[in-house]
Amino acid sequence: MRALVLIGALASLLAGCGLFQPKPPEPEPSVPAPHPRPLLPVPPVPTPPAPPISVAPPAVIEPPAPEPVVAVPPEEPAKAIPVAMPWLKPAVFAQLPGWRDDDLTLAWPAWMQSCRGLRGNPAWSGVCEAAMRMSALPESGEIRAFLEQQFQPWQVNQSEGGLDGLVTGYYEPLLRGSRYPTPRYRYPLYGPPDDMLVVDLTAVYPELKSLRLRGRLQGNKVVPYWSRAEIEAGAAPVRGKEVLWVDDPVELFFLQVQGSGRVRLETGNYGGNSGGNSGGEIVRVGYADQNGHPYRSIGKWLVEKGEITLDKASMQGIKDWGRRNAERLPDLLNTNPSYVFFRELPSSPGSGPLGAMGVPLTNERSIAVDPRGVPLGAPVWLATTRPNTKEALHRLVLAQDTGSAIRGNVRADFFWGFGEEAGRLAGAMKQKGRMWVLLPRDYPILVNGK
Description:
By secondary structure, this protein is α+β, with helices and mostly antiparallel strands. The protein is built from 10 helices and 19 strands. The strands form 4 sheets. The protein has a 6-stranded mixed β-barrel. Strands 6-10-5-11-12-13 form a 6-stranded mixed β-sheet, with helices on one face. A hairpin with a 6-residue loop joins strand 15 (about 380-385) and strand 16. It is globular, with a radius of gyration of 38 Å.
């Protein structure tokens, strides 16, 4: 009985929606009339007029009552998680050497690039929105007032104590290359191999966040990925992963150290995007991955072996040694087990290479840092000297990149730009420096547990 009631109710509901029409009643069986008999004529009887037929007005169908609207409370904005950074000490802007002398209009485009990379980060949304409300090309004084109002400077200290750190330089080199191997172009840039595993344990071990954990399967175990020497000896399955070929193994090594660069293709090579003769086309390549091994300085190895003196342990000094000792070059390069894999990037005329934040770097206004000590994207006041001089280099820069050799709180790699002059300055730069990071005034930093 209960089932019949439910079926009836369901039928009524569907009929009201127009999705179900009840079956019409079957007509009653007709009874055949008896065979007629002849009748006597009967005089006609006048038929009384039919009463007027009243037509009922059409029924008005009331629309169904609207369903009640349930108000959904707006989502609360994401909150930044407080972090403890005991190596940061509060400072004031007057303590920053040369603070009032820098032309901040040169740093403003780099800061806006940082805001692009910091989208969605609640710790930075307020200051970035405030920056967006400013004029497109603010004056240096406006920028200085903005920074003083929105930011708190913090002096960066080394974890073991001390204020001084190392400032080196890097740049975007230009190499000669080809899309195909030839007797001249026989040193390949490889893309990441298929058997390399990315091991991410940060959900369980947050302290491993800054480490590049790469491995490979050996049976049912994950073991370290092949080292540089092993990759060069053919142990890794990189055949078929060639991006380009270049003509100089020393330049290729330093391209891996820089992390990005440009390659001028030999005339007659065919560009992947142009679909025709490149005629000396320049393509951009960038960091795609790394084999997980730590960076070891080949300059330090040469000094320890007595091959060069400390004052010659620059990029140019190492290149000169390599060209004089071509037969020993593989042994030198293999002392650094780190190996970088590349990818071809779209060409963006006038813009720098992409840094670790995924935004273009700005010449002389972007630096690479150790993100464990300085948050990526943050403005940094850098106080150092120009390469091989005592001339002050005090300016606002942006922490927009990282590097396997960049370790320590007070540690910066200064991006000089593209070309030979940038390479000369980058190769010679090995200066002492101090750093102040500028954080939003409401940045969730824990000081003394608060």
